[in-house]
């Protein structure tokens, strides 16, 4: 695509010569207009933006320097080269102050001017490429931060309400139906997954990372706003952002909407499964929540889909799940609830809780044994698989124990043997959890010190988890249990408290303080600070120290 050039000179023979002599096509440029003075030039720029303006200094009505000043004040993005028959340093100095790229004296040396134009446009293209790359990196950082928050929401590690100061600028979205949820999972108990189960942990991590990239790239190419969150080894939650109007234009009833929603979401799931199959060489299956979900509904929706996928005895690659259409029988739901409490007790190192849930599980199996019509064994098998994956995610299942369990699971044990295996695994898990509790406390204290030392920069939960040698999900759970808040909540609160201290005790500007506490963008820092304290930074500073240490110009700075 050619760049656009505007020529401004009150001498028409100058503009005609510029049009004819300069090799515009070779430079990748086209002339979009000519003007005789600054007023005409401004009107043309407002109608047709230009990448480059060649402008004379001395002109009637509005001269070149006044034109340049107006261009800069109006925020019109273009490069400017001045042309003048006057070799006066005051003109040159004024031009430099307004960011003019070069200053060419008349009579115009066209070869020299051609070289200057080529250099200026090359610098502009390079600068735009840098800006584009920086925006891409910033967008990815924002996506990662969003994914961290969404992970905590999905795992129910944080309470999402309009009062949560982490949600600065997002309050209006909490109750809106905006996400299509697709959970992608490897069928860990299938014969197709045996190779995957035998992979070393390092190879599995690389594969998990590769699948995340495949899913992101697939949706990015489609231009869809999305988030990809790895929930555990071999399981991902895909959230596609969109209103109901994205599925239909508001002209359909509930039944037609449901049909269209299922058609569209199933198409997305099929596309993602095919992409993983092609690029990662592994077969997954998909569970879709059967309606759009608001942010404050995501945790319940995820649990519903995950439970449905784990308890389902069907082998369909794509299935829909919802609270109203749950197909599993009552014993399955009860077993699932017991398993969830059992897993929670293990992770807490609560031996009494584990023993109580083991007894409930035994009672439920005894009660359902005579009436389950052969469905109890596969359900218990799926629960054992779920338990194994949760134990592994919590780092409570050594690799040798995992391999032994897989071997036994592949032999299709009966209900009695499956229960014995679950009981042994949970008992060993709670012992390990108890032994690790003291270590975890030390790790969390170490992580907290590490985070406090690095508040000034973009710090990821993955980096903090790696620092103490834990998986991201297990670190997030331990941190929440230890300090009563998530990683993001702690980091943000610590930054806000540091910012309050700097505002109260130093004369540093708001922009400087924002950078020192890890916010590259002052306006976003102000939003979060306002949400946290109820005041914008300058008002907070005035309240605690008066105007004596206010930095120049800060009193009128617009921060709302």
Quaternary state of the chains: single chain
Helix amount: 55-70%
Radius of gyration: 31 Å
Count of spatially separate domains: 4
Strand content: 5-15%
CATH topology of the largest domain: Alpha-Beta Plaits
Q: Give the neighbour order of strands across the main sheet.
A: 2-1-3-4-5
Instruction: Give the number of DSSP strands.
Output: 10
The number of helices is 20
Shape: elongated
In CATH terms, the superfamily of the largest domain is Reverse transcriptase/Diguanylate cyclase domain
Question: What's the layout of helices and strands?
Answer:
Blueprint (H helix, E strand, L loop, with lengths): L2 E6 L3 H10 L7 E7 L2 H10 L4 E5 L7 H10 L5 E6 L4 H9 L4 E4 L4 H45 L24 E8 L7 H5 L2 H21 L4 E7 L2 E7 L12 H26 L4 E6 L8 H14 L6 E4 L8 H19 L2 H18 L7 H18 L5 H12 L4 H39 L7 H7 L4 H12 L3 H19 L4 H7 L5 H12 L3 H9 L15
Parallel strand pairs: 1-2, 1-3, 3-4, 4-5, 9-10
Antiparallel strand pairs: 6-8, 6-9, 7-8
Can you give keywords for this protein?
20 helices, 560 residues, 4 domains, Rossmann fold, Alpha-Beta Plaits, five-stranded mixed beta sheet, five-stranded parallel beta sheet, 57% helix, single chain, disordered C terminus, alpha/beta
